[in-house]
Prior knowledge:
Blueprint: H1 3-22, H2 30-33, E1 49-65, E2 73-85, E3 88-97, E4 105-109, E5 123-127, E6 138-142
Antiparallel strand pairs: 1-2, 1-6, 2-3, 4-5
Pfam family, one: DUF1684
Region (Disordered): 1-37
Protein name: DUF1684 domain-containing protein
Amino acid sequence: MTDDYASRVRESRAEKDEFFDEHPQSPIPPERRDDFDGLAYFDPDPDSRVSATVTVHEDPEPIELETTAGPNVRYLRVVTFAFELNGADLTLAAYRQEGDEDAALFIPFRDKTTGQETYHNGRYIELEPEEDLADGDEVTIDFNLAYNPFCAYTETFSCPLPPEENWLEIAVYAGERTPPW
């Protein structure tokens, strides 16, 4: 990872911290904003950017994702990514809500840091491929961009929970950490 990439990640994080601190739609409750000094992150890690091989699901299977505070949400499992991280061969499924074919690929996941160093209900990654994916394509999944859902900061939001198929049996020390309170 170049210093330039790490600088861009830190710059993006600073922008997010500013949004969380100042924006009226921030998920940080107003009573906590005076003490808010930014989110907690793992340092950018070059080994947490992985090349993943795509398997496209031509007839996407619907899956109901549980949420933190409400009814389940229906998604379609559109692709599966196979990759190696920390010496382990892993897969993650990516989803889109039904009827939203233009949305980013949604990758909710848990790992061995979940509930310890990271939010107890898991984290998310979004991936926006520049073109339609095909079987065998290679894409980069950057765990440095893993983030906590808004429900990590307030119970006002209802967030999808990572399904068991996206529970990684390794620790991923990249991205956002447990909220700082």
